[in-house]
Amino acid sequence: MTRRDFLIYSSALTATSLNAAALYNTDKFLTADEYSTLLSLDTKLTKLKRHVGFGNFNLISYDDSLKVARMNRRIGAFNKEELSLIDRFFSENPAKYGFYGERTCYDLNNKISKKHVVKIPRTGHYIFKGTPTEDYARIIGDIGDTLYLTSGVRNVMKQLSLYCSKLKRLKGNLTQTSKDIAPPAYSFHTIGDFDVGKLGLGSRNFTAAFAKTAEFRQMRKLDYVRIRYSPNNSDGVRFEPWHVKIV
Ligand SMILES: [Zn+2]
């Protein structure tokens, strides 16, 4: 190790893990302050989810989330930094992090009425009435009930919470997070798409393992089913064999 390398190495050790990781690649990261806001935001969203319930959390709007948090002592109102981080994740163009998908939602306070969705039993998830529900029933009819809904309608707060927990797991790395999950205003789950998986595969349904199942192979043969994020898609998102394109 040269002296210069040693200096880089030792200063990286004394820096926060965020900065250390940032030293070695060109990925974009949250600053240390933003990262600590992310942690408190993530905790608040988890408490909110527990309070309103898994199913309702898929649909709850921004305004209603703020109201519920403010009224519940155990959650507590979202603070200024948390609100501005939410606003940033919703408003900014994620192309700078390598996400080139389309914006699907222009209203931070987007409302999804229970009148417009159907709850799918035993999943805690919803699907929009009309084409999404009809296609889902057709897929299950063609493949059988070893296939099931792993994620359906997701309003802005639910997408935000998935985005935040992934960003937390990836230590504030915005570039890597953008490959795995759409930012809160860019998910097609907000307007009609849904995810399916194989019973018993659990969280591995959201990995390449799903593409190896008989269920996926059967699904590929159905001419009315399209996969939103194919391998090497132009959106910059990883291959998602489980994500059915409806819209
Ligand atoms: Zn999906």
Your description of this structure?
The chain has 247 residues and is an alpha+beta fold. It folds into two domains: 25-111 and 156-181, no CATH class; 113-152 and 193-247, no CATH class. It has ten helices and six strands. It has a four-stranded antiparallel β-sheet, with helices on one face. A two-stranded antiparallel sheet has the order 1-2. α1 (3-14) packs antiparallel against α2 and α3 (32-52) crosses α8 (156-169). It binds zinc ion. Residues 151, 189, 193, 195, 243 line the site of zinc ion.
List keywords for this structure.
247 residues; alpha+beta; 4-stranded antiparallel β-sheet; two-stranded antiparallel ribbon; 10 helices; 6 strands; globular; binds zinc ion
